[in-house]
Amino acid sequence: MTQLSEHLSTHTGPEWLTAKRKASFDLFDTLEVPHSGVEAWKYTQVNVDFGKLNPHPKREVVSDISELPESVQKRLKGTDVGAFLVLDGPDVVYRTELPAELTAKGVIFTDLKTAVEQHADKVQQYLYSVVPAEVPDDTTIAAPGTTPSKSPDPSEGKFSALAAALWTNGAFVYVPRGVEVDLPLGSFRVMSEAGTFTATRTLVVTEENAKVTFIDEQDSEELPGTYAIGAVELVVKDGAQLRYVSIQNWGKGVTHIQRQRGQVGKDATLNSLVVTMGGTLSRTEMQSHLLGQGGHSEMLALYFANEDQHFDHYTLQHHAAANCYSDLLYKGVGDDQAVGVFSGMIKVDLGAQKTDAYQKHRTLMLSSEARNFSVPQLEINANDVRCSHGSTTGPVDEQQLFFLRSRGIRQELAEKMLVTAFLEDVLTRVPLKSVVGYIEGIIAEKVGAA
């Protein structure tokens, strides 16, 4: 642990942040690596020697988009965003500024490191408020005026504490009360050094009746022995609307571990989309905590695992207030010797009456050697609710494949068409054409039909 301790000492900042970092690192030091004996990690084993983790080297700012990695250039040219950041490891290497009219309205979009320096009051108020810095497994979460109950999330632990202690940078978005941001904002994170790790943190705050879309992307070439660890905090105040999109397309050899959690206020809406396509091992957690009456959460996800990829998704729909609605639809594809894991919980607190919650997970298997584990769960402590969950796993329909092949369509293209059709009901719920087109391109590459 000596090397990580030395890395912690390199982080400077205000006293409150230094204290949070140290408390998180002290917790990290006492916790064991998640293993199969922990139910939330039953099917996923992360092999990491923390004593040998090397931080990603620093990177310099570039003056022109042509100096960025080719994959990032291509992505930025094909997307519609109002402003964006590009981070290479721990550093912002390129950025565009917000339109002047948004800045005049009080909208803030910058990297988190800069935000700590220039907007300290706002960052201190919200940072670690959604994904805690040093809270152990018995974290309690409750809506205002209700009795707290233990969170059903047993996976708070070592990686979350490490991300809280050693984050180097990330994105900060703040939208004031009543302000609507029409074009999405974006953060594009890359890594360029094998055998290293990077920890990032994203904080998005939408005040009352505000509205914004944030696209959070990760991309790299093949990087053996590389770790990307992070946390995303989404604050959605009363009446606000936040659409959050996460696209993970790391190269082979990357281990990705990230917790994404939203707190949703009264009559507020959080729409989330999690796309997992890259890396060798990926553990992504998406959690919505509905803390105000009338809150709404839509949780969508797509993943496509092939070769030896291992994708683990852990979800939580936590209804802590009455009259809230949540809808989860996760769809995945498994090919070759890949492994897919889904563990989803709908948690309804005592007093959260009139809850309306749905959870559906479906997996399409393109190979008899691919494996899938699905664990949908309910924990209901109220007696006037409507909750349902379900999971299905099955192979490509041979009749559909034969129908396409009999019309002269080659095998790879026929499979691509069936996979795209299978995922279509998720994609049609995403009103971002450039994002949908990008995802469809990755799918085509996965099935060899690009």
Automatic annotation (TrEMBL):
List the Pfam families hit by this protein, alphabetically.
Answer: SUFBD_core, SufBD_N
Limits of the SUF system FeS cluster assembly SufBD core domain? 192-422
Matching entries from InterPro entries are given as: Fe-S_cluster_assembly_SufBD, SUF_FeS_clus_asmbl_SufBD_core, SUF_FeS_clus_asmbl_SufBD_sf, SUF_FeS_clus_asmbl_SufD, SufBD_N
Q: Could you list the residue ranges that cross the membrane?
A: none
The segment(s) forming the SUF system FeS cluster assembly SufBD N-terminal domain are: 14-185
Q: Which PANTHER family match?
A: PROTEIN ABCI7, CHLOROPLASTIC (PTHR43575)
Concerning NCBIfam families, the annotation shows: sufD
Which family does this protein fall into?
Belongs to the iron-sulfur cluster assembly SufBD family.
What is the name listed in the Swiss-Prot or TrEMBL entry for this protein? Answer: Fe-S cluster assembly protein SufD
Q: Which gene encodes it?
A: sufD
